[in-house]
Amino acid sequence: MNLNIQDTFNKELPADPIKENTRRQVEEAAYSFVTPRVPSAPKVLHISEEMLKELGITAEEAKSDLFKNIFTGAAIYPDTHPYAMCYAGHQFGNWAGQLGDGRAINLMEIVYNNNRWALQLKGAGATPYSRTADGLAVLRSSIREHLCSEAMYHLGVPTTRSLSLSITGVQVMRDIMYNGNPAYEKGAVVCRVAPSFIRFGNLQIFMARKDTKNLKALVDYTIKHFYPHIKGTGKEAYIQFYKEVMERSLDMVIHWQRVGFVHGVMNTDNMSILGLTIDYGPYGWLEGYDPDWTPNTTDASGKRYRFGNQPSIVLWNVVQLGNALYPIIEDVDAMEVVLNSFNEAFAKKYHFMMLDKMGLSFDKLRMTNTKADSQLILDLQKNLRAIETDMTIFFRNLANVKRVMSNNEAIDIIKDAFYTPSDFDSEVKENWHQWFTQYLQRLNREKQSDADRKVKMNSVNPKYVLRNYMAQLAIDNADKGDYKLIDELYQLLKKPYDEQPEHEQWFAKRPDWARNKVGCSMLSCSS
Ligand code: AMP
Ligand code: MG
Q: CB within 8 A of 28, min separation 6: which ones?
């Protein structure tokens, strides 16, 4: 395995001079050097073939002991210098001070096919940023991160990736629901991959400490490597940078709303400076379309990170990023222009995304039909909430509606998506009838054929997503030592938009047993 190591973060930015692995506040440094903990009995359970190719590692090499050792923390690749990043953040809206990579250790950066990739182990032991925790990860959360990262990538959602999922042989104590019932679980390590793991919080920490010199150094570094088209190192460049981070974050959340993904912990330390979905913890997938749903039990009371609130939270986080950048921009007006453009840009992109999901073209009608289309979207959302309706099944089946159909025929096509058909009573029924009257009229003004529309809709409405209970089944099996379902789901989710008749069983509503089960509808940060 010959990796083209091209480290930059730990070469170009200031390191914490202290080398001991003790928990502490780290100042005037972007990271601390740290060595992964050697696992007692590492075993690779699953590897992403796509990610292997991206990194130029052959399937043969992936079977080697070297691969296993490097990507579980048992050995360090020659001439690399692993480190944990220093960052801060707002957690659930409150300033939390220094956080940092408490259980992530960056191994190295690789350049392959002109793409830069940072590789990072999650769960490979404590770092100076571990605070009171152990730096470890358990198998259940690692399966969820590994499968979901790759599934999101194949859905076309900007995301960090996952190269490998391994168990360490170490037992890890966790109290899953924070209710005084701790138990041992299998420890695991995921090797995450992204061009960079810099978060909003990496900038916030320098602002909080009034360390403008390092704030500027980190922003210059980020622009140089990841926004290279932005030239210069002055105010103009930083405003442009701020605008582009805002736009990328906005695009990311539009994708989440499109596929029904709920992140669960959108703290500023979990916001990538590259607009990637990062830190798969207590995330979940909408089953019934419910904007108020959050998978995270820690967030159950305030529901700050509920599905329908995600776009506002992105804006809130972008405001915090603005505060962090302010010392090197010092131009409130220019920054407000960026912030003020968020809502309008969101409204537009969201509108077009929803029309795409509904199979309605908007290029020519854009100027004339916006109001009526907005109403159609609003009414649809109201109906989807009035009777528990599976989001994925609804939109996928909607593509089978034909222009010549009657309301009743169209409703027949989508009613499989209803969880409790008995709720389809008079008022709900009447509203759906009214909606389909409007929708069918609108379809009849479309130039595209039913068949063409279906192809387009099926390219934005996935057939298969990592439903909460599916990940939980893979976890339950893995706990018993059976890892087959991990690969089965991974293979399935590589082609989320394709019909896969042999996998039709996964195109189904959440089974009843999963409605209120821990791990399916209720997740905690305890991972
Ligand atoms: P999260 O909510 O997972 O994004 O984590 C928030 C902060 O807690 C980050 O600084 C993490 O590195 C840290 N953290 C989470 N779990 C652990 C753990 N098991 N050991 C050490 N630090 C952790
Ligand atoms: Mg985090």
A: 14, 209, 211, 214
